[in-house]
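Chain X:
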Amino acid sequence: DRDPLIDFTRADCVTFTEQILAMAISDNYEHMFNNLQRIRYHRGAIDLRTRNHFTHADWVPNNAWLLQDVTAAVGGKYCREMTKTIDRRKLLSDLGVPESEQAAIPPAETMTIKYIPEHSLLAVQDSLQTGDLFSIIQSAPGIFSAHMGLIIRKEDGEVYCRHASSRPETKQVIDDPLSTMVTQLQANRKRVGMAFLRVKSDVNLAEPPAATPVDHEIKH
């Protein structure tokens, strides 16, 4: 993986969220660095093939030690389901990984997730907590998540979405009121709602295992 292992000078929505999570659960730089790689890569093995490329197919299940999906608990009767086929091998091929190096990569799989439609998000905002993660769900095939960030409930009680914005007029980490995010979602036909994650209350914060680069056959 040619991406920097840590970079506080720039970030996209995923790397911003990963770095904030790693800092929040760590008590020193070494622990933070190792936790970051554990969040970003399957079992902390640093390699393009082990990176958690797909938010809901890789990033969420491989971080079950840290996070739980609370979409159903937050959304209740408002939840909807979406089913897609996730093709990791195609993505890796598009990223330049030869087929000969993909033997351990699972074939395409079909999976279903729950999400809360954009028109119902304000109805469930009282169930959101500071530190929750949001994932914007899109309708395009092959991938669920279009964007992600953190939920912040400020002193005035209003819920905000803190995220690394790629909009040309911002291109920085900003706080958008959830109501503003809903308006933006409603104006975008491909973005249909949100799913939510929460840090587990019983997460084990013991010293994380050191991250290791992969220079051999991947084993799952």
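Chain Y:
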Amino acid sequence: MSKKEEEVHVVMVPWLAFGHMIPFLELSIALAKSNIHISFLSTPRNIQRLPKIPPNLSSLIDFIPLPLEYSDHLPENAEATIDIPADKMDDLKIACDLLQRPIKDFIAKKSPNWIIVDFFPHWAIDIGRDLNIPVIINYVFTASAATFFWIPEFLTGYQRRQARQLPEDLMVPPDWIDFPSKVAYTRKNEAIAMHNVFYKVNASGIADGDRLIRLLQASRAVCIRTCAEFESEYVELFAKLAGKPVFP
């Protein structure tokens, strides 16, 4: 077997926000230090604005620029959340969804061992299934936040309607956290905003909670940007509730 055939190759697909892309880049660097080849997919301007990687890892991390298809509603050169006002967020989601085809074409051509995705591209599950490549979801948030929001049975459908009918339901710790916890929103305006983001269908045609449920249900494992020393109880509880391996 050649060295190329033995090499582990991972494709990274972060959401178009620097608060997501930079943690994905940090994970890419950590994996590259273990001699894992990374293909980091994003848009041209976003790649240009990312921090530089260590020179000794440059042969292991490839940045793959994928141009956005701009609509009449998305400003020209807007490729990340930092480039747009809040009322244009749905337009960025629509543009990001249009990357599904070029991303699938790239993955089909390269045949990586794993696809690691953010909360957003629920269609990555279809890509992985069609190409027989396992998908891992990488949360850039803490395990406490993941446990508060992203338990599959409470993201959609009847259970969600019972547990999270109103924004005020986000202002108390959920019942499924079975130890003392203060994780909850304290400002009603923030609770209203997040309730809308997670549970209401937006202009992209799908609620963010529905994106997450597909990824959680079909992904092989979950990575969380945390450590056991910081919040071991939440890591253990999230793994139990998600029903799959969780790697802090």
